Amino acid sequence: MLLSLRWLREFTPYEGTAEELGARLTMLGLELEELRHPCREMEETLIGRVLECVRHPNADHLSLCRVDTGAPEPAQIVCGAPNVAAGQHVVVAPEGSSLPGGLRIKKAKIRGELSQGMICSERELGLSDEHDGILVLEDDILQSGGAVSFKPGMKATEALRLDTEVLDISVTPNRPDCLSVLGLAREIALAFGLPLRLPLLEREGLETDASSLESMRLEVESGEISPFYQLRLITGLSARRGPAWMRWRLRACGQRAIYNLVDVTNYIMLELGQPLHSFDFDKVRGGLVRVALAGEGETLSTLDGQERSLTASDITIRDAHGPIGLAGVMGGAGTAVHGGSRAVLLEGAVFDPSRIRRTARRLSLPSEAAYRFERGVDQGLAAFALERAALLIADLGGGRMERRPLHLELKPLSRPAVSLRRARAESLIGVPLEDDFCLRALTGLGCAVRAPEQRGRGGAFYAMGSAARAPEQAGDAGCDWLVTPPSWRHDLEREADLIEELARVYGVDRVPESLPKVSRPLEKAGHPEPLHKFLTRVKFWAAGAGLNEAINYSFIGHKDLDFLGLPQEGRVSLLNPLNADLDVLRPAVFPGLLNSLRHNLAQSVPGLRLFEVASAFSRDAHSPYGTGVGEDPRLGLLFYGERHRQGWPFKSEDADYSDLKGCAEALAQWLGLPAPEFDLEEPDASPWFAPAVVMRVKGERAGFMGRLKTDLARACHARKAVWLGEFFLDKLRSAANGGRASFTPLPAYPAVRRDITVMAPPDMRAGSMAAAIRDCRPEHMETFFLLDVYQPEGSAERHLTWRLIFRHPAGSLLDAEVDKTRDKVAEFLRRRLAVRI
Amino acid sequence: MGLIAELEGLTAALQQGLDQAVSLPEVEALRVAFMGRKGRLAGLMARLKEVDPEDRPAVGQAANAAKQRLAELLEERIARLKALAEGAEERFFDPSMPGRPPYRGSLHPVTLVMNELCSILEGIGYEVVSGPEAETDFHNFAALNFPKDHPARDMQDTLYLGEDLVMRTHTSPMQVRSMLAHKKPPLAVLAPGKVYRRDFDLTHTPMFHQVEGLLVGQNISLGDLRGTLAYLARELFGPETRLRFRPSFFPFTEPSAEVDLSCMFCGGSGRTDGGTCRVCKGGGWLEILGSGMVDPNVFKAVGFPEDCSGFAFGLGVERIAMLKYGIGDLRMFFENDARFLERF
């Protein structure tokens, strides 16, 4: 909401600065977003009086003027405008001043004649696009009218009473009453203890007893869709440019001036908060105006020339032949006021906020009017606003307003009284509140307040504010006051709403700080670790393992998933995505990590070790959250490029499967899980990887990993292998089941080691050899591991050397015994796997 | 008595020789020359028998002293030479060569700030809870007093998954889930997590993080909310931090307040040495969180008694991380540039 300080002062005599006002409003919950200075660039211009105006001796289209600008000597100014004449009051940019757009006015010779300034047009001053000639200050230049008493040398912004300071105030959805100059003036008057005055209605000479409206019928389908509906007729009008003061003010407050009949409705909406609509009276057919829901599938051609298809929830204004406007949203083209309109039917109404909102949103027609209707307008003020607008239109258009309006108020405003307990307010705010303070605050806001025992006698305990009336019904008897909010405060319906107002007036920033007692339920003690804690621990583990944490968006593009070959089914799509790159929730974490890879490759990163803990989303009718969407927490890993930092003492080598698998194993070990098994995936399980590996824990699939297929990697601009892993944290958590490390006493006797080198064909897996060694159950073997792998040149064979560690729990082993066991294992491998040893 | 003098003279002679010796072999040669079997000491000792028996003990004593002294001198010299040799080795040791660093893993700044917020509030008794990011209309809006077709819903541009299913626009649905799970007051919970809005520009990303706090009990006041947030802010940003409460509007709290912190970069003065403070733009205050007393309609929606009271607050994690670490650009958080991540 844009509030001009000068406009505000027409309602309340606030004398402070705009900055102080903004700060105060901010602390009242009406946050100042920005202080604008719409006329800043014409600050240096002055009022001038053209003393003499003659033809330029050397140019046909230029005039030579002597202009009094308040200086001891008149200035000589060359002017090219055709409408300049002696005796005029004009706006002058004197020598040395500047104008909008950074134009600096310098002394100059124009066709041989000295020019000491410039007489300005509206466009040159930044006041409008008007550039047909210079701005001549006529009698109606000010709202107050009357004789112009400008003195040469006055600052133009002051003399013209321009809106030089405009506060952009953010108004929260609960305060539609502050979407007007009047509404903000109310708040300011209360805050600073100032009087509030409403504009006076000047009817003299602007009314007529003629009654063309009498022949017109008004129907409203129900009080639900329009509790209040009023029409006024203004006749004998001529459309013309609005007066300067109104045009300039609308422009300063962010509205475009069009012409008088339209400008007035905008002006009154900004001033009083009541949106108005004008119909061309001569185009309304059949002597009927009807407010009713549209028929499903009906069409209306709206002001903007669009053909709109209507639904049964749209409120329409109709004449005898059908819809002529979408109530509160946009008028119809057929009845639109235009330059030739002679009679205007002006509508002031209240409509059902949620229907207006639905219509405006469905048709994507946001407007200042709909914005106010959907938040709620002041039914108590609608008739006043309509009459003020009608009189203003009559005044500016040279017409007359018919004295009697057409009026239907099917649902008169009734505000139930709200009971208020002072003790509750004190307990909720945390400060003692004096009776006197509460009463002053509430009545200052326009509420009527009375004590409950006075119920039935109808006597207001204390009343202030124009629309407040005595409560008609009472709340419970345990309360201290019965409070009837004013017509403009739709948000005051419950005790909590009133307590909020008391807190606001008291100042939420003045309440002393205290610390509450926090109690935790005893039943919770010893319960399993909550998910968030587990995930946090996994993150710490991963960072400790030397990985960098990434966070990617939870959404990605369908096209990315299709490209990677992720299944279509089960995906969770967004209905209104921001763009096609973000139109589906990640069904797995790794596609997001690929985005991180892409970004880093663009920065020429030599190597990358990332992890991310995030949810994978899928359609799941049995989701524990009851949302139909499964959210599976995952740990994603990505290894790419250089394993180490570049340079000595590290060797330059790329990360590979061993890095990924090593992490997976370390994670399982850290969680206290048995050693996971790793196997090649079923052919179609992860078609984006080659090789694709599945990790199983206790026989259950607990993760998948592998190398991104080369063509997919290339699409990420990756020239080296991209190793990705994704692990199912819920599975791992439940498999671990809070598992913790257990301690066995350290061995007392020394270990003996023996190596076995297996010469195996290329298709034989290390895992098969390990399984054979285990199956052989060598006596006293404590552990074994792969010591080395050797690929003899020119041979497809692999030589794998295994180291077996033997230890007797209760004594030293003899070499001969161990040699025998080793030979037994070698023989077993030879027979089982048909390999050479 | 010349023999004693000669014996004493050996020491000086060796000292002279040693002063010239710069290597161990040279010292060894001197040792042989003086103390070897055919060395000068041995030579003098051989003359012992020529000495008057009466004088022998004195000469013997002198000989022993000379021997000991010679040995000492040699040892001293050897030790010195060895030390020099080692010193030479050290001279060529290059301590400026690069080290072999372990991998330096890192947590995302968002995680760091969430962890910090959680540990502060857990420390004063709050319990961490988590819930779904795809949320029902009921939990995200209706139960939080956002009626359908109400302009309050415009405050949060929503990403929809279905008619009644949204990406949660705030962590506040965890208020609803927690109260439903607890069934009755009191409770004090804390819900960190991802939230989503349909908004993407320089200062908005469609996903960001919040931490939500909720305390419900008896006679909980706005003063308690102020105290709790003051505690939190001072733990986060230091004991000098001041808070400013401004009335605001959230459908699920009443009264509602936006909370500003005194700018930690200029101490709230709005000025730094370089002129106007860049962080608070001269205002001295930074908008940091929204809060308020739980609206009775929320208690009604979860079946809590009418006479309970409580407060709720929500913090933007990225905003705090930006202030804490001096990160200027919101988008950095989700690009995952390794150079960015490795800073934390």
CATH topology term of the largest domain in chain A: BirA Bifunctional Protein, domain 2
Q: Roughly how much helix do the residues of chain B carry, as a percent range? A: 40-55%
User: Which second-level CATH architecture of the largest domain in chain A applies?
Assistant: 2-Layer Sandwich
Fourth-tier CATH superfamily name of the largest domain in chain B = Bira Bifunctional Protein, Domain 2
What is the β-strand count of chain B? 12
Annotated CATH homologous superfamily of the largest domain in chain A: Bira Bifunctional Protein, Domain 2
State the CATH architecture of the largest domain in chain B.
2-Layer Sandwich
Structural class of chain A: alpha+beta
- Give the N-terminus to C-terminus distance of chain B in angstroms: 84 Å
Uncertain runs of chain B are none
